[in-house]
Design goal:
Layout (H helix, E strand, L loop, with lengths): L8 H30 L4 H17 L8 H25 L17 H17 L2 H12 L4 H8 L3 H21 L4
């Protein structure tokens, strides 16, 4: 029957912590670079993989090889296995999507567009023929004030005046439309 050896928990814990600090100091920078190459374009993933590698080392700190080179080899093997596990886990889960799915476009809501056209058409129909002609020329055909004046055979001041009063009337009509 083997004899049980009693260790002081404080001394054991302090030694384990000291060993882990030394291991981290000796390998963390090299492991981070290695894991960054294994997860290109995602440095946050490399940091997560490093933390997982260190956690696994902490769990087995008493069983780690004693030589520096052997310990480094063990850590790199664990890091590689952690990276492989992460890739497998990502492939096993559905892709996380934030926002729109790639390759799909939002279908425009035709109802809103049709309603806007109807309201605008009704509003334009309530204007006088002269005001409607000025607004259509300025905003629908995208003519300047001078071009509108020539095409309608009126002065530029009259174009400005009619467009001002027409827009004010349209604004008043649209503000009185109940949105709900």
């Amino acid at each position: 029957m083997p004899v049980a050896v009693y260790r002081k928990p404080e001394a054991d814990s302090a030694a384990r912590e000291q060993r882990m600090c030394e291991l981290y100091a000796a390998t963390a920078a090299h492991l981070r670079r290695y894991l960054t190459r294994l997860s290109p374009g995602r440095p946050e993933d490399a940091e997560d993989l490093l933390q997982e590698t260190m956690l696994r080392a902490w769990r087995r700190v008493d069983d780690l090889p004693t030589g520096v080179d052997d310990c480094r080899r063990w850590m790199f093997t664990v890091a590689r296995n952690v990276a492989i596990d992460a890739v497998r886990n990502r492939k096993a889960r559905p892709v996380e999507v934030y926002g729109d799915l790639p390759g799909t476009a939002a279908v425009p809501d035709e109802t809103t567009r049709l309603l806007d056209r109807h309201v605008l058409g009704d509003t334009l129909a309530r204007l006088t023929e002269a005001q409607r002609a000025v607004l259509v020329s300025l905003y629908w055909t995208d003519r300047s004030v001078a071009e509108t004046a020539v095409s309608l055979g009126i002065r530029e001041g009259t174009v400005r005046s009619r467009s001002h009063y027409a827009l004010r009337t349209v604004r008043d009509m649209l503000s009185s439309v109940d949105p709900g």
